[in-house]
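Course assignment 3, question 2. Fill in each field.
Student: A.L.
Task: Predict the tertiary structure for the chain below.
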Amino acid sequence: MDEQRPWHRLFDLSWTDFFRGLPVSVEMEKDLSLKQQLLDVVLIRKGPGALPCRLPDGFEDLAAHNLVSFKSYQEALDGWALNELVGHYVNYRKQVSPSMQELLPEADFRLLAVSVRYPQGLARQVTLEPLQQGVYRVRHFTGPIRVVVVHQLPRQEHNALLHLFSARDELLAYGAQHYRIRSAETSSLLYELFRRYQQEALTMPDLLEEFTRETIDRLLKELPPAKRLEGLSAEQRLEGLSAKQRLEGLSAEQVLEALPPETLEALERKLKGDGLPPSSP
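Answer field:
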């Protein structure tokens, strides 16, 4: 399962970016037990009222708490995965309710399973009731689970976020062309997606590579200088600058103060040898 986590992490980050500035908080890789059991994403509505953007198909009518399980193109969405999601729901509901005797109403929760490819095995086990193109409902235990199949979603702008996780060239290219990163904090999202596809030897549409570069370049220009330099060593900050460029803006006194004693002594000897008056200390 550890080999799959990068895809899940990127899926989590994409929702964090999508809801930037909106009254929905995103909790990633929610740990629900002492023995680590991670739920991919929890989307939490922060109040009533319509959101000012259209959500991907299957996510239109968010409840107060929305528990999302994600299966990449490498993974199968099967009955056991649904069992896990229901188990997460039971645990999570207990955690967020006032008490075990005052559980929040079931209507406050929605369970969603996002699968990149159509779950053939699951379809042989349970009935996938079509709700709209690429969106199904499964009756599991006592309640419904919504299943969203990325490869079946229409190529429409509000679905671009999920198309970024497609393994089909045309859908991946559509997602890259139509999704717009919303915050600098997640500016590396497309770049990390690009790297992940390369590592797994998947076909990478030129459009995604180009769009990744353009997005990162645009966001870098928007970042304040201090943010762009954050984490860089002194050598990295000066890399590519000529000696003249490195000294621009510095007074003679500042330059001399920065020089080590042995360099100052060598300079002093050089000036005396050329017959020039030595610099004042």
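Instructor remarks: The chain has a mean pLDDT of 81. The first helix runs from residue 5 to 18.
Grade: pending
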